[in-house]
Amino acid sequence: MIYKGLIEKYRKFLPVSDTISVISLHEGNTPIIKARNLPLKIGFNGEIYFKFEGMNPTGSFKDRGMTMAVSKAVEAGSKVIICASTGNTAASAAAYAARAGIKCIVLIPDGKIAFGKLSQALMHRAEVLEINGNFDDALNFAKELSGKYPITLVNSVNPYRIEGQKTAAYEICENLGEAPDYQFLPVGNAGNITAYWKGYKDYNKAEPSKYVLPKMMGFQAAGAAPIVEGYPIAKPETIATAIRIGNPVSWKTAVEARDESNGVIDKVTDEEILEAYRIVAATEGVFCEPASASSIAGLIKYVKRGYFKNNKFGKAVCILTGHGLKDPDNAVSNAVKPKKVKANMKDIIDAVGF
Ligand code: F0G
Questions:
Q1: Using CA atoms, how far apart are residues 63 and 186, in angstroms rounded to an integer?
Q2: Measured in angstroms, how far is the CA atom of residue 188 from the centroid of ligand 1?
Q3: What distance in Å separates the CA atoms of residue 185 and residue 265, rounded to the nearest whole number?
Q4: What local confidence, expressed as pLDDT, does residue 354 receive?
Q5: Residue 241 CB–ligand 1 contact under 6 Å
Q6: Cβ proximity of 314 and 339 under 8 Å
Q7: Does the C-beta of 291 come closer than 6 Å to ligand 1?
Q8: Ligand 1: does its nearest atom lie under 6 Å from the Cβ of 92?
Q9: Is 340 helix (H, G, I), strand (E, B) or coil?
C-alpha cells in the first residue's frame, strides 16, 4: 500500500472523522537509523538509534502536528492560521496552509531564525512578521490575535498538534518491536516531549508487557533552561535558536512526562550541543540542526556522568528533530573551511596530502 501520511495510517488513534478532508504532504514514516560508530566513540554499551525527523516533508517533526492542526482547521471552516515560531513551525504551517489554500501568518523573533526556515516560510507565501522580541513575546501576540479574530492558532497549545506528533512514538515502537529504554529529545516549548509520552502510553496501554514505558530524557539549552532552573527565563540565549524559549507552554505536561517515566529534564551547554552536532554528522553521516543535537549532547553528558552504571544501558533513541540543511550558517561556521587551491594538479595533490 502506498504511504499517504500519518492521518491515513493512524486514523483510529487520532481524533478525526471518516469524512475529514486530509491536508497532507505524506509526513511521518521517517527512518530510524541504528548508530554504527557512536556507541564505541562515547562509551555507551548499548544500542543507539536516531529517529531522523529531519526527513519529514518540510525537514522537521512539526509536519506531524501540522497535518492534524491544518486538516482540523479547514474542517472547521478556518481561512487563516497563525503561529509564533523559532522557525520550524513557521515553515511547516506555511507549507500546509499553501496546500490547503488558506492564509498563514507567522510571528518570528527578529534576526534569530535559521536561514533555511525563513526561506521556506517566504516561499510558501506566509505573511511573515519579524517582531522586535523573542519567541515567548511572539506567542503572546499570536494567542491574543487568535482570540480576537477568526484565526486558528497552530502552535502546540492546539491539542491536534500533540495528537499528530505522538505518532512518532508509535513508529518507534513498531520499528523496534518494543519501546526503547531511553527516549532522548530536545525540549523547547515542551510540546514534543508531551506528545511522545502520550504516544508511548497509548502503546503501553494496549500491550503493557511488550511496550514497557521508556525513561523520558529531555534536554534544554543551558541559556534557555526554564524547566531545569524552575523559573521562566526572561532573555533566553542559545546557538540552538529552535529551542531559544524562556517560558514553555507545555511546562506542566513535560514535568509530568519526566516524573511519571522516572526520567530527567536537564541542560546542555552550547559547546556540548555543537560538539554533538559535529560528531553525529562526521561519524554517522546524519546531518541534523543544532537544537536536535541537544538530544545526543544529553546522552553523551549522561554517559560521562556515569548515569548508565546505575541504570542499564539498553536501547536509547535520540530524536533528531530537524534537518541540518535548515541552518547552513551554523554548519559552515562550525566546520573546517574549504581549502583555497590553485587550478593545477600539483597544488591539488599537495592539498589532499598524497
Ligand atoms: N527541535 C527543533 C528542531 C525545533 O524546531 C523545536 C521547536 C524543538 C526541537 C523543541 O520542540 O518546542 O516541542 O519542545 N521549535 C518550535 C518552532 C518552537 O517554533 O519551530 P518543543
A1: 17
A2: 5
A3: 10
A4: 87
A5: no
A6: no
A7: yes
A8: no
A9: coil
> Is the C-beta atom of 322 inside 6 A of ligand 1?
yes
Q: Is the CB of 191 under 6 A from ligand 1?
A: yes
Cell of residue 127, nine digits: 505573511
Rounded to whole angstroms, the Cα distance separating 191 from 247 reads 12
The model's pTM: 0.97
Q: Would you state the cell numbers that stand for residue 123, as one nine-digit string?
A: 516561499
Give me the torsion for CA of 258, 12, 68, 26, rounded to 10°: 110
Of the candidates 238, 229, 85, the one whose C-alpha atom is nearest the C-alpha of residue 157 is 85
In the chain the domains, ranked by start, together with CATH numbers, are 6-59+161-334 (3.40.50.1100), 62-157 (3.40.50.1100)
Nearest atom in ligand 1 to 85's CA: 19
Helix (H) or strand (E) holding 80: strand 80-84
Encoded amino acid at 209, one letter: S
Q: Which atom of ligand 1 is nearest to the CA of 186?
A: 9
Q: Residue 245 corresponds to which amino acid?
A: I
Measured distance CA(15)–CA(11) in Å, rounded: 8
Q: Tell whether ligand 1 has an atom less than 6 A from the beta carbon of residue 120.
A: no
Render pLDDT for 129-158 as a digit per residue (tens, 0 to 9).
Answer: 999 999 999 999 999 999 999 999 999 999
